UniProtKB/TrEMBL annotation:
This is Lysozyme. Keywords: Antimicrobial, Bacteriolytic enzyme, Disulfide bond, Glycosidase, Hydrolase, Secreted. Its EC number is 3.2.1.17. Coiled coil: none annotated.
Length: 234
């Protein structure tokens, strides 16, 4: 995942010990084959695994990561990296559902997540327009809505939405209010949360560092383990 509005990485990496909630992690092909038993023994209890990006990429390590985490005792889910520059949201939700993004009410599978954020094609050199995939706020709001509706229709649950406050408020703003239906996964490498995307008042997941105790990005669930299980059950 790709986070720009981060301020204090050192503080972020100590939050596992100081932040209430359930510790977790997210991984992609960058982590390769993960030692899930060690991560579990070190305290992680949930994981999100990248399944897809756009309409032409699947994580080659997805099976090891998704099945392996389940076998080690994790509550886990899959995520899709959205690429509004490639196709519409409905098409990408369908691709995600066909390649690992489905949900089941077994109490161990989290709703799929949409990672919608900075344009990876240009990174830090993006112009303001490129940062938002050269789309206007209403267009990006509709893109997300189409993804959400398609995922909901295919699974019966709403997806989690991952983003930064900076990108979402800049590129989507008030044209994308999913706060009443989609759990929010905040990316902010900061000592405390101050700013949220439009109309969300609380995070469900917080990605607070890009390395630490566990492989991949470091996360925390905002609540007790029983609440995490409830989310997984739908």
């Amino acid at each position: 995942m790709y986070t720009h509005d981060c301020h204090d990485l050192t503080a972020g990496r100590t939050l596992l010990q100081t932040r209430p909630g359930v510790p977790g992690m997210d991984v992609s092909s960058h982590q390769g084959n993960v030692n899930w038993r060690t991560a579990y023994n070190n305290g992680a209890r949930f994981a999100y695994i990248k399944a897809t990006e756009g309409t032409g990429y699947t994580n080659p390590y997805f099976s090891q990561q998704y099945v392996g985490s389940y076998r080690a005792g994790f509550i886990r889910g899959a995520y899709h990296f959205g690429r509004p520059d490639i196709s519409n949201g409905a098409t990408q939700a369908t691709y995600f559902l066909k390649n690992g993004g489905r949900w089941s009410s077994d109490g161990r599978t989290l709703p799929g997540a949409l990672d919608i954020e900075y344009n990876p094609s240009c990174g830090s050199s993006c112009t303001p327009a490129q940062k938002c995939y050269n789309l206007r706020k209403p267009e990006l709001g509709k893109w997300i809505q189409d993804f959400v509706n398609t995922y909901r229709k295919g699974t019966g649950v709403y997806p989690v939405i991952y983003s930064t406050a900076d990108w979402y408020n800049t590129c989507v703003g008030t044209y994308g209010d999913f706060s009443s239906v989609c759990p929010f996964w905040l990316a902010c490498y900061c000592p405390r949360v101050i700013t949220y995307p439009y109309n969300w008042k609380v995070y469900t997941f917080w990605q607070y560092a890009d390395s630490g105790t566990f492989p991949g990005d470091q996360n925390v669930f905002n609540g007790p383990y029983s609440q995490l299980q409830k989310l997984a059950k739908g």
